[in-house]
Specification:
The complex is a heterodimer of chains A (about 325) and B (about 325). With about 325 residues, chain A is of the alpha/beta class. Chain A folds into two domains: about 150 residues, 3-Layer(aba) Sandwich (Rossmann fold); about 140 residues, Glycogen Phosphorylase B (Rossmann fold). The longest helix of chain A has 19 residues. By secondary structure, chain B is α/β, with parallel strands linked by helices. In chain B, about 35% of the residues lie in helices and about 20% in strands. Chain B contains nine helices and 14 strands. Chain B is elongated, with a radius of gyration of 21 Å. The chains are: A alpha/beta (about 325), B alpha/beta (about 325). At the A-B interface, helix 2, helix 3 and helix 6 of A face helix 3, helix 4 and helix 7 of B.
C-alpha cells in the first residue's frame, strides 16, 4: 500500500527486498502509484509500481497478509507467497466477495511468518499449508543503549488507546508520575523514534494481537524499562527478566508496575532483575540483522528449491 | 426507606439497546418502590427508552419541576457523565453510578484539576462488581464505594431445553476478535451444522428469545463492569465460552462457563471445537451442564437481591430528614 504514515510492517517489507537483492535475487517493492516510496525511514530499496512492473512468467509475488485475499483474483497462475507479518490480521481485509481462501489456493506456495505464535495460529487454521518462520531484527545503528536518559516515559498511542488512557489516568490521579513525563511517539520518522526511545527511561507497550512487536523490541534495545502488553507475537522476547509483561486488560496491574518502576528508578534501584544494558544486549545479540538475512535467504532457498521447481523459475 | 428529596439520574437519549441504561431505569424503579422519589432525566422532552418494557419515572432536563436540582436532591450520575457534571452542577450532592470502572477516564477532561471522584460534593460511588470496586479504590484511595449485585430477569432469561444448533454472539464489542474466531471455525469446517446468530439492535425480548434457542454463546466482552450478555446467556442455558471482560469473572467461571484469557484467539477456538463435536454427537451431557449453569445464575443473581442491595446502599448513603435527603 502507498502509506505515508510510519508502519513497521512496510519497513520490514523493504528490508526483505533489500536482503533478496543483496543476495543476487532480483526483487522489487510494487507500490500502487508510480514514483511512490516510503520516506519516513532511510532506504534505497528498489521500488516500482504494479503498473510499471506487472508480474510475468518466472516471477513470484510476495503478498502481504492484508492483500492476500484480493490477490486471489489478481495475476492468476503467478506463484505467490504470503508474507504474514501479523496472523491476527489474516481475516481483517477479507471482503464478502472473497470466496477463495488464499491459504488453500494452488498459486499460494507458502506463508512466511515472524513468530512462533503466528505460526501456530496459521497451522491450526489451515492444516497442511506450508508455514516458514523468520526472525525480525533490530537496527543496531539506531536502536542502541544510551546510559544518559531523561525521566521520560515513551509510548505509542496507535493501538489500545483506551488502555493507555486508563493507565496514564491511574498514574496521574494517584500522583505517581512523580516528575516523569509521558511522550507519545506518533507519526515520527524512524530516526526520531529511535532518539526518543534512547532518551527515555521507560517504555509502555500497548501492543495488541501482533505478529511480533517491533516497538517494544526497539525500546528494549534502547535500554528502556519496558512494561506492558506483549501483543502475543512478542512473548518470545517481551519477558522476564528483560521486561515486565502484563496480562492483556489488567490495567491496574499495569499502572502498579509502572509505579514500582518509577519508584525504583528514583531510588537508583533496578526495576528489572537485570540491568537495562543487559536487556538491551539480549535484544541486540539475539535479533541481529545477520540472523534476519540468513532466515530470509534460507526461507527463499527452501521455497525455490522445493516449490518453485514446478514453475521453472530461473 | 422514606426521604423527601429526590434522586435525579441524568442519562443520554440513546435509542439503541444498552444494558447499562436498562439498569439505570431499574435503579430508579427500585428507589421509587421504596419511598425515594427518583427520576430518569433525559435530554429531549418525551424521550423514553422503548427497547425494553418499562413504566419508569422519566422526565427531561427542560422540565422546570425536575431540573435544575433543588435543595435536598441528589444526582445519581453515570460514570461517563461524571466529568461533565463536575462543572454542570457544582455543590449538588452526587453519587456516581459506575457501571463500568474501566470507563472512569473515558471522558476525562482537564486531567489535572477537577476530578469528580475527589470533589467534596461526591457522596459515594456505586459499582456492580468486586473488580470495579478494586479498580476505583486503587484509583482513588479513600473513595467510598458501594457494590450492588445485578440481577437477571427470570421471566425472559430462563433455560429452554429445545435448542437449535446455533451460536449466538453480540458483535458490538471486540469485533476484530469475533471475526477471527468465526472465520477460524468456518475454515476448520466446524460451522457445517451450526449457524451463527448475531444479536444486534434487538429488543430485550428478541435477544432473550434468541439466547433461549441457542446452544452456544460466545462472549467477546472487554473491559466490563459486569457483563450482562454472558450472564443472560448462561441463564438461558447457552454453553458460554469466551472473555469475562474483567467484571464478569465472578460468575463467568468453571464449571458453569469456559473463560478465555483476553486476546487468546487460538485458545478460544480450541475451546469451542470440542463443544461443537460433542453437541453434534450427543448434546445431552453438555445441555445438562448448561442447565446447572442456568440454575446457578438464576439462583444467585435474583431481582430480590438486586433490590435489597440498592435499598441498603442508599440507606447508607443518605439519612432521611424532613427537609430532604440529609447528608
Amino acid at each position: 500500500m502507498d502509506w505515508t504514515r510510519p508502519s513497521g510492517g512496510v519497513r520490514k517489507l523493504y528490508r526483505h527486498v533489500d536482503i533478496l537483492n543483496a543476495a543476487g535475487m532480483p526483487a522489487v517493492i510494487l507500490h500502487q502509484a508510480p514514483g511512490f516510496r516510503a520516506s519516513w525511514f532511510a532506504n534505497e530499496t528498489k521500488v516500482s509500481s504494479f503498473h510499471e512492473t506487472p508480474p510475468g512468467y518466472g516471477d513470484v509475488l510476495l503478498v502481504p497478509e492484508i492483500l492476500a485475499w484480493q490477490f486471489t483474483g489478481i495475476a492468476p497462475g503467478v506463484p505467490k507467497i504470503i508474507f504474514n507479518q501479523n496472523a491476527y490480521q489474516t481475516f481483517a481485509w477479507r471482503q464478502p466477495q472473497h470466496a477463495v481462501v488464499p491459504y488453500r489456493h494452488p498459486d499460494y506456495l507458502a506463508t512466511i511468518v515472524v513468530s512462533d505464535d503466528n505460526r501456530q495460529y496459521l497451522e491450526h487454521t489451515f492444516p497442511g499449508h506450508r508455514v516458514l518462520r523468520i526472525h525480525h531484527s533490530v537496527d543496531p545503528g539506531l536502536f542502541y543503549f544510551q546510559p544518559a536518559k531523561k525521566r521520560q516515559i515513551a509510548l505509542m498511542p496507535r493501538k489500545k488507546d483506551a488502555d493507555m488512557k486508563q493507565v496514564l489516568g491511574l498514574l496521574r490521579y494517584r500522583g505517581k508520575l512523580d516528575g516523569f513525563t509521558a511522550v507519545e511517539i506518533q507519526d515520527k520518522s524512524e530516526a526520531e523514534t529511535a532518539e526518543i526511545l534512547r532518551d527515555s527511561m521507560i517504555f509502555l507497550s500497548f501492543s495488541e494481537l501482533e505478529g511480533w512487536g517491533l516497538p517494544p523490541m526497539e525500546a528494549m534495545a534502547c535500554g528502556c524499562v519496558t512494561i506492558g502488553y506483549d501483543g502475543r507475537g512478542g512473548r518470545e522476547f517481551f519477558r522476564a527478566p528483560y521486561a515486565i509483561p502484563i496480562e492483556p486488560e489488567d490495567v491496574t496491574a499495569f499502572a502498579a508496575a509502572v509505579e514500582r518502576a518509577i519508584a525504583d528508578l528514583k531510588a537508583d534501584r533496578l526495576p528489572l532483575s537485570v540491568t537495562t544494558r543487559e536487556a538491551s544486549d539480549f535484544i541486540l545479540n539475539t535479533y541481529t540483522p545477520q540472523r534476519e538475512a540468513q532466515d530470509v535467504l534460507q526461507t527463499w532457498r527452501e521455497i525455490l528449491d522445493v516449490d518453485l521447481a514446478r514453475f521453472r523459475v530461473q | 426507606m422514606r426521604a423527601s428529596g429526590r434522586v435525579l439520574v441524568p442519562v443520554m437519549d440513546w435509542t439503541h439497546p444498552a444494558g447499562g441504561m436498562r439498569k439505570l431505569y431499574r435503579h430508579v424503579d427500585v428507589l421509587n418502590a421504596h419511598g425515594i422519589e427518583a427520576f430518569i432525566v433525559h435530554q429531549q422532552p418525551g424521550f423514553r427508552c422503548t427497547w425494553f418494557a418499562n413504566n419508569t419515572a422519566v422526565t427531561c432536563s427542560s422540565a422546570a419541576q425536575h431540573w435544575p436540582p433543588r435543595l435536598g436532591d441528589v444526582l445519581l450520575v453515570p460514570e461517563f457523565l461524571a466529568w461533565q457534571f463536575v462543572a454542570l452542577a457544582p455543590g449538588v450532592p452526587k453519587v456516581i453510578f459506575s457501571q463500568n470502572a474501566y470507563q472512569t477516564f473515558e471522558n476525562a477532561k482537564d486531567p489535572f484539576r477537577v476530578i469528580p471522584y475527589l470533589q467534596p460534593d461526591l457522596l459515594a460511588s456505586i459499582v456492580v462488581s468486586d473488580d470495579s470496586q478494586q479498580y476505583l479504590q486503587y484509583a482513588f484511595p479513600g473513595l467510598r464505594v458501594f457494590r450492588i449485585h445485578y440481577s437477571v430477569d427470570p421471566t425472559l432469561f430462563y433455560f429452554e431445553p429445545n435448542k437449535k444448533r446455533r451460536i449466538a454472539l453480540m458483535p458490538r464489542k471486540n469485533e476484530f476478535e469475533m471475526k477471527q474466531v468465526a472465520m477460524l471455525l468456518e475454515c476448520r469446517g466446524l460451522l457445517k451444522d451450526f449457524s451463527i446468530a448475531r444479536i444486534h439492535d434487538q429488543s430485550q425480548e428478541q435477544a432473550a428469545s434468541m439466547l433461549r434457542e441457542s446452544m452456544i454463546f460466545l462472549s467477546f466482552s472487554t473491559y466490563e463492569g459486569w457483563g450482562l450478555p454472558p450472564m443472560e446467556a448462561m441463564a438461558c442455558g447457552c454453553i458460554t465460552i469466551g472473555h469475562d471482560g474483567g467484571g464478569g469473572r465472578e460468575f463467568f467461571r468453571e464449571p458453569y462457563a469456559t473463560p478465555i484469557a483476553p486476546e487468546n484467539v487460538l485458545e478460544f477456538v480450541t475451546a469451542v471445537e470440542p463443544v461443537i463435536h460433542q453437541l453434534n454427537q450427543d448434546p445431552r451431557p453438555l445441555l445438562e451442564k448448561a442447565k446447572a449453569a442456568s440454575q446457578f445464575v438464576l439462583a444467585t443473581y435474583t431481582p430480590q437481591r438486586e433490590e435489597q442491595d440498592i435499598v441498603r446502599t442508599w440507606e447508607q448513603i443518605i439519612t432521611p430528614s424532613p427537609s430532604g435527603l440529609r447528608l
